[in-house]
Write a structure and sequence with these properties.
By secondary structure, this protein is mostly beta strands. The protein contains one helix and ten strands. It has one helix spanning 8-22; strands at 35-38, 46-49, 54-58, 63-67, 69-71, 74-76, 80-82, 99-103, 106-110, 116-121. Keywords: Signal.
C-alpha cells in the first residue's frame, strides 16, 4: 500500500507564516497619517487629514486646506491654500509645511528644505 503525504499541513504552515509576517509589514497605507492632529485651542495649529489625502485645519490663525499624497506614515502636503489674516503673536509655521512623518502619536512636519519646522500630537483615540 502506498502512502501519500498530505500537502495540507505545509499549506497551513505557509499561510500562518504569511499572516504572521503580514503583521510586521507596518501600518496599512495611510492609516498612521489619517486623523486629527494638533489642538483646536485658540491660537494653536491643527489639521484633519482624510483617507484620500485631503486636509484642512489652521496654523493657529489662518485656515489651511489642500490635497496631499499619503504614502504609509508620510504625507506630502503639496500646495496649501491659506487665508491671509494678520495674526499677532501666532507662529504660522504650519502654512510652510511640505511633508509630515508619523511615528506613534507624533507627526513631525518638515519644510521644502527638509528641515523640521514643528510637531503635532494626535488628537483623540
Amino acid at each position: 500500500m502506498r502512502r501519500y503525504a498530505s500537502k495540507a499541513p505545509g499549506a497551513v504552515a505557509l499561510a500562518i507564516t504569511l499572516l504572521a509576517l503580514g503583521g510586521c509589514a507596518g501600518t496599512p497605507s495611510g492609516h498612521a497619517v489619517v486623523g486629527e492632529w494638533g489642538s483646536t485651542a485658540t491660537g494653536q495649529p491643527h489639521l484633519t487629514i482624510e483617507d484620500d489625502g485631503t486636509f484642512s485645519g489652521s496654523d493657529g490663525c489662518n485656515s489651511l486646506s489642500g490635497n496631499g499624497q499619503i504614502d504609509g506614515d508620510e504625507i506630502d502636503f503639496g500646495s496649501i491654500t491659506s487665508t491671509l489674516k494678520a495674526c499677532e503673536g501666532v507662529d504660522e509655521w504650519l502654512a510652510k509645511a511640505a511633508t509630515g512623518n508619523v511615528k506613534g502619536d507624533t507627526m513631525t512636519v518638515l519644510d521644502d528644505s527638509g528641515a523640521t519646522i514643528g510637531t503635532l500630537k494626535r488628537e483623540g483615540p
